[in-house]
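Hi C.,

You asked whether I'd gotten around to modeling the 721-residue construct. I have! Everything is below, sequence then structure, no commentary in between.
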Amino acid sequence: MKTTLIKVTAILVLFSFTQLDAKSIEMDLKPEPYQKETSRWLVRLLEQLHYKPMKLDDAFSIKILDNYIDTLDPNKVYFYEKDVEGFLAYKTEIDDAIKSGDVELAFKIFTIYIKRIQDRTDYSLSLLEQTFDFSKDEEYIWDREDSPRVSSKVEMDDLWRKRVKNDYLNLKLADKDDAKIKEVLSKRYKRIAKRVSESNNEEVFQYFINSYVTLIEPHTSYLAPRTSENFKINMSLSLQGIGALLGNEDEHVVIKKIIKGGPAEKQGDLKNGDKIVAVGQGAAGSMLDIVGWRTDDAVEKIRGEKGTIVRLSVLSKDDLQGAKTHMISIERDKVKLEEQAAQHQILKVNTGLNEHKVGVINLPAFYLDFDAKARGEKDFRSTTSDVRKILEKFKIEKVDALIMDLRNNGGGSLIEARDLTGLFIDKGPVVQIKDSRGRTNVDRDTDETIAWKNPMVVLTNRASASASEIFAAALQDYGRAIVVGERSFGKGTVQSLIPLDNYSRNNEHPMGQLKLTLSQFFRINGGSTQNRGVIPDIEFPKRAGSDSYGESEYENALPWTSIKRSNYNMQGDLTREIPQLRESYKARELVNPEFVFVKEDFDYYNKLKEDVTVSLSEEVRKTETKKREKRKIERKQKRLSITTGEQNPLLAEVNVLFNSEDEVVSEIDESEDEDELNNTENDSEPADDFILMEAARIVTDLLKIKKQQLIASTEKPSKQK
């Protein structure tokens, strides 16, 4: 298609999109001159350097426009069917627009988006002046991803009447009076409209270009100049003060990642995927609704002085629609380097016949002080050096077996993943890296010394990613360790930041950066960690919501593939032991109440998660809430009876002999306050780390098998005599 068509029809497209309204709006958003050159360079770099280059043509053009529309209105509550039909009239011209840099159409679509939001805001505010009938049993479809676009204003008004009614009922069920509810919702709706209307040309361009870039592969993205400039800051200030990163999903501020060693991780209740509904300052007082806020605005309220308290009203990731929020109080602090570094424990496992010491190394990340290393300092901080010191302590303490705990370890330094693997093998390849040109490089451990030769287990979960997967996969392939827990995340790609200014002829305005996927990791056995992740030798029951997390959940994630096996020598053979260990574990799984609870929660969540509707009847909602509360109470009573009763003999007793982490117990006044949205205790979580305890039992089983094999091997010659 000719790019000039975009220019010719740009004015007409605005007119046709606004026919549903009695009034039109003026176009005040438009591309900046520098964005034209930026767009052109992005296309060239993506087609020439990306690991999976995709030709920007008419077929891809249609996907980009669909993705842009879904990015702006994922739940189909703003754009009318006729709006989208008008947009799609130019579906095969998007590719030409991006190639030429003439992206006016994207800005015009965004302008219509602003107008639709303002219309819905005005209507929502008018509804707050009316009275809702909560005795009427009607349903609101809260997830409209699979629903058709709204075709008329009457239909749109009814959709939003139910939406506002649901928002109102949520607060009403949280014991808010009518005046407070209207105040909270009025501010919320106005804030959402204000946030979108204040979008600038840079943000609109970034939204649109990323609708193209992220379609190629999920870890590739464009960072606009302001985003690029603050990239490092943004990565740390998204919940700086409590030790977590946050982002936006639809109208909610969402927890993206809990930082190991930070206040949130120590407090224990806040989880990845949780939605923050409101924020309060101090141990008691009013709560500020933050639904519809920008991430950086929310950060302003959550950050604070060390030692002060922030309260978060939260909806859990796996909470179903209509669930009550729960209150989490966290004492702000700085995340210290020591707390992010490797920590260790020594556990005592009592099987009834024998006692064994099991060492645990909790590794939150693969870290390396690059600056200190570059300066030539001998004692620079690194994962490998810290773990080596811990292993020496374990030897002194006569520890029998080891657990490398990589749960929630999102990766880090590839160098450290390689060097850490080297502590447990003599020498050899650790990971294969294939670039976009098909060339494969093998990263090897060349140090023949082995720091730990005793049996070991690697513990993973769905949040173990990247460098964690390289380490776990290598030890699994070498036959050096048993991998237990959950399947890992499945991120097997490598990204680099490319400053676009390096390609610019005009340096008057910065162009931002491109985060580009350049390579893919492969195991030494030739398989990939991409998409599938590392499959444990002994897999624990799936948790509720875990099936919606991981690389495989991205529609456009790179597929699993394989290359030639690397040349390496096995460091052990655990093929005989794994079936025996699995059998022993399965017997315990049946009698371990915590695993029973996990499976119950998984089934309960899956049974209800497909229901995308919620009742707008106050009585029905109260009944549903009572059922959920009853279930929590019953779970708490079950857990209490188990902890006070006699433990099943199959479950070997596990006690902590030593823990390097300082236990900080903050006594927080959790007295109810009339301004709090809700304050419900979370009774569904066990007091102890039952996952770690089971990993300790598994590695103890491995010790027992190895001992039996040793006895058998020494007795065999004497029998022959």
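If it helps when you're writing up: The domain at 230-331 is CATH 2.30.42.10 (Pdz3 Domain).

Thanks,
B.
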